[in-house]
Amino acid sequence: MNHLNDRQSLPALVLRGLTILLVMFPCTGIADSWHISAEEWSRPRSGHSLVAMEGLVNAVQAFNQSNKSQLLVRYPGGEEGALWASELKDWLVSLGVPSSRIKLRPGQSSHEHITLMLKK
User: Fold this and answer.
1) Residue 76 CA to its chain's centroid (Å)
2) 31: number of Cβ within 10 Å
3) What average pLDDT does range 69-83 have in this prediction?
4) 105 CB neighbour count, 10 Å cutoff
5) Count of CB atoms situated within 10 Å of the CB of 24
6) What is the pTM of this model?
């Protein structure tokens, strides 16, 4: 009989554990992310070359699906990373992304790419 009570309480324990995890580690609202490599970005840029960057195209398409989302740009620190992110933001604006919905954040762990993250 005691064994049966343990079984019945298992779903309750699992639910309680999941609730604790959600409280300790809340969802940040980051749904998707894409990368643009330094190699891709080092090529001469034009509107035509930008639409060939799969990560950029996918990020803009996902962004356009919601009028409340923000595009978070995580870039390598330092002057070079800041210039890269600033130029990318300018191109995103030229592709129709409102500048007020683009957030630049230094501290990308890799100097080999920029990460675009959709925050819903």
Assistant:
1) 15
2) 13
3) 93
4) 12
5) 7
6) 0.71
Residue the block writes with tokens 């009028």? 67
How many degrees, rounded to 5, is the angle at CA 34 between CA 56 and CA 64? 55
Q: Which residues lie across from 36 on neighbouring strands?
A: 114
Nearest to 96 by CA among 117, 67, 54, 120: 67
pLDDT tens column, 109-120: 788 999 999 998
Neighbours of 19 (CB within 10 A): 10
- Residues 40, 115 contacting (CB under 8 angstroms): no
Instruction: Kindly list the distances between the CA atom of residue 48 and the CA atoms of 15, 39, 43, 53, 56, in Å, as whole numbers in the listed order.
Output: 50, 17, 12, 9, 12
Please tell me the distance from the alpha carbon of residue 38 to that of residue 55, in angstroms, as a whole number.
Answer: 12
Q: Which of 118, 56, 120, 119 minimizes the C-alpha distance to 87?
A: 56
- Which residue, chain included where needed, has tokens 């930008």? 50
Confidence of residue 31 (pLDDT cuts 50, 70, 90): low
